Amino acid sequence: MTISLRIQFLATVLLLCASCWPAFSQDFPAVEVSGGYTLLHDNELMKHGSGWYASAGFNFDRWTGLMIDVGGNYNTVDVLGGQRNLRIHSFMMGPQFSIRNESQATPFAQILIGGTTRSITRVGDTNETDLAMQLGGGVDWRFRPKVGLRVGGHFRHIFANNPPSNGFRLETGLVFTLGKRQ
Residue 101: which CATH number? Predict the structure, then answer.
């Protein structure tokens, strides 16, 4: 390769990189706040439990952020021949990875670790808090510049002694974006 061809090749590569730079420097939200409805299907504790979730995501760049998620699911279960109220509350945090582009849809994946508290009323009001892990993802669809719809699904494992529990949580709610970063 002659020096002239090397310079042309280098100039072409630099020009292509410079033309792509605006795509990498586009604004992204500093914070995303979401809340809504959840349906938890747990193999060990309950068949289905309706509930709520609230989450806040703090974005470091266009692709990664820290997600904090809290939620509660509720159901009635048969214990010792009677109906008892079961409550599962969770507090988890971990990384979230998003694919941001110019479209209205932003897919994301999460790896969350934290704790869950399970309580059953009228059986001595037992409370158990255990380590839990939640893997999942979803899509945020913006229908206004700062407001969107979040739909997601998550696999949850509760590391309990008595017994460990696997479940799947579906969620849907509103997501609000706050602030901007470049």
Answer: 2.40.160.20
